[in-house]
Amino acid sequence: MPTYVYKCPKCGNFDYYQNMNDSPLQNCPTCGSTVKKLISAGSGIIYKTNGFYITDSKDKKDTAAS
Ligand SMILES: [Zn+2]
To answer: Which pTM value belongs to this model?
Structure first.
């Protein structure tokens, strides 16, 4: 499951686990403030805010961890 990083204006950055098909988190689960989605902390995958992602597979083996 990918790890998404969100930025809350009150709580700061936090990791949030969710499925790839889930809608992006819009409110902080702690304080309810509007959060901003940052890039994923996952390995080699950068998630863009508009939904698509870029996989940098140049130097990586094709390993399906799941
Ligand atoms: Zn918060």
So the answer is: 0.54
